[in-house]
Amino acid sequence: MFIFGLGYTASRVAKTLTANGWQVEATGSAGSVDFADETAVVAALDRASHVLSSVPPDREARVDPVLQHYGERLGERALYYLSSTGVYGDQGGAWVDEATPTIVQSGSGRRNARAEADAAWMKLGARVFRLPGIYGPGRSALDRVREGKARRIDLPDQVFSRVHVEDIVSGVVAALEGDAPAGAYNLGDDLPASGNAVTEHACRLLGVEPPPLETLEEANLSPMARGFYAENRRVANGKAKRVLGWRPKYPTYVEGLASLL
Predict the structure, then answer these.
(1) Of the candidates 37, 84, 80, which has an alpha carbon nearest to the alpha carbon of residue 59?
(2) pLDDT for 109-135, tens place per residue?
(3) At what angle do helices 253-260 and 195-206 cross, to 10 degrees?
(4) How much is the pTM?
(5) CA distance readout (Å), 102 to 3, 116, 142, 211, 232
(6) Phi, psi at residue 157, to the nearest 5°?
């Protein structure tokens, strides 16, 4: 397995695959292959039967750097890509599944570099994992509360899906080792909920008062964060369960936060 981008999630995929007997090489960490060293990357690709990319597209240039630099080198390898459920755009709180048109397909919603990259990997026959908000060790509502960074935004009908990083790993490994068909797979938990509900539960676990409710204007969020709150959807995970045999270890944020406490 060759992994482009050994970040928060992909590093955990690599650790699990190594434990399962895979040989793993990657870009993105000390001692790994330099992404810009074309000779080294091509040599590593020549050794690989499987390729996973977790590298996000360049938001300004609107290109996927992996496909831009090495797309022609991917050949007949089994391809896997970590995408985002943001490709579905705003759905007004409705459920989406893998048959729901993406922003690229529908032409609606904010133009999204991730959606364009998602579509490009799909054309190559990749297994594309569409991920909602990722949380796990060192990156959860518990950490935000402890650090004084938790917010509650007064948007009563706002709903998000989320997924524990361990459940992403188990879904990716199930697809790899089960030789899953190419296509998109939503890996999200079973209980879409508001960000406020998760923050309030984290506060209860830690025995502290929740932060005050703020309007979007009072919160003074970054453009990226405001874009996040502009979208509202529930993500269905039935296909991953049916096709991959995947079951989330943490089916809701309640179990997920309890495990992290």
Answers:
(1) 84
(2) 566 889 999 999 999 999 999 999 999
(3) 40
(4) 0.95
(5) 25, 9, 32, 34, 14
(6) -100, 10
